[in-house]
């Protein structure tokens, strides 16, 4: 399923995911990409292995309380918290996104942001933000630059910009240097997950008026 | 926090670690004999696997107690290095170890060593505890009909993990310290740069260098 993915996550993101140092929105991006990409999943597991080795050989250990084992056995006897419900599958949203949307693609609460483009902001911690974007077939997202880092991953359809064409599972990584105007393929509406650690900045006048709506 | 991330690279330094783990999917594993006793007198990884399997199949408390004595002080140290108070860390470690018991049926020794598995449980609990955030996990893979892990895969994974561990110990101290900070300090590369006073580019290239060395050691 993942053989066609051409644009992957960076080493830094994969290592950060494994080390647990990314903001929640970036973790969501990584978990969603790993759900579709076996190559990055294998790398992420390798970084976990590195973490396991660090744990084994941690430079100093810290003694537990005298009654810790008994206390833990008591916790165990107390039973286990119920697992989160597994949600029915969805062709567009991998499991981590279904958890944030609370269902499938039809449960997304879209808000129009102009020119047919819609977005749905996902509930994450404030350190970075995540949203789903809906771009009608053939439509363009206004020319914009970025402040900070923005990752965009395609979930349905495809878009193209000056860099390349991006299809399901592909991640475009944009930083301050990239100004681009993604255009959705004409064949299908495009749905993306976008995460950023700063608000987008737009170049032309009308999009600038839209910016307060897009700002998250 | 990632404004200075480099362009995407699919064959970067992380490939190092990646290759180590991928080897088991290739013919490299064929003909290897299982020699995974480590040279530092620790139990070999395989014995911890047996402990978890005994917990899973027989709710074996003595096996759990041994695992606990080995891993709990490490998990506690990890949590304290990551910013927990000692009392938080104590409580959280007990929860991590209880989770290990409850999730023993999910442990797959062909995909992770026990240490790796404990690490991921502790890391997730830390995010929960210190950041009050949930941690999105990738969708579970469905492995098809042959659900029982292959013994050859299990042995191969143990060997490779032991090998990685050895390579990690052989790293120059400065590189090892950076990796430890990245994993245990709950610090992004940028934050490590701020703490150590080294430029961000230096931090990144040192981590990259460390990963490259690991790759070479695994060849
Ligand atoms: Zn990938």
From TrEMBL, chain A:
Coiled coil: none annotated. Residues 105-193 form the ChrR-like cupin domain. InterPro entries: Anti-sigma_ChrR, Anti_sigma_zinc_sf, ChrR-like_cupin_dom, RmlC-like_jellyroll, RmlC_Cupin_sf. Signal peptide: none annotated. NCBIfam families: anti_sig_ChrR (TIGR02451). This is ChrR family anti-sigma-E factor. It comes from Ruegeria spongiae.
UniProtKB/TrEMBL annotation, chain B:
SUPFAM superfamilies: Sigma2 domain of RNA polymerase sigma factors, Sigma3 and sigma4 domains of RNA polymerase sigma factors. Coiled coil: none annotated. InterPro entries: RNA_pol_sigma-70-like (IPR039425), RNA_pol_sigma-70_dom (IPR014284), RNA_pol_sigma70_r2 (IPR007627), RNA_pol_sigma70_r4 (IPR007630), RNA_pol_sigma_r2 (IPR013325), RNA_pol_sigma_r3/r4-like (IPR013324), WH-like_DNA-bd_sf (IPR036388). It holds the Pfam family Sigma70_r2. Keywords: DNA-binding, Sigma factor, Transcription, Transcription regulation. Residues 67-135, 167-216 form the RNA polymerase sigma-70 region domain. PANTHER family: RNA POLYMERASE ECF-TYPE SIGMA FACTO, RNA POLYMERASE SIGMA FACTOR SIGZ. Belongs to the sigma-70 factor family. ECF subfamily. NCBIfam families: sigma70-ECF (TIGR02937). This is Sigma-70 family RNA polymerase sigma factor.
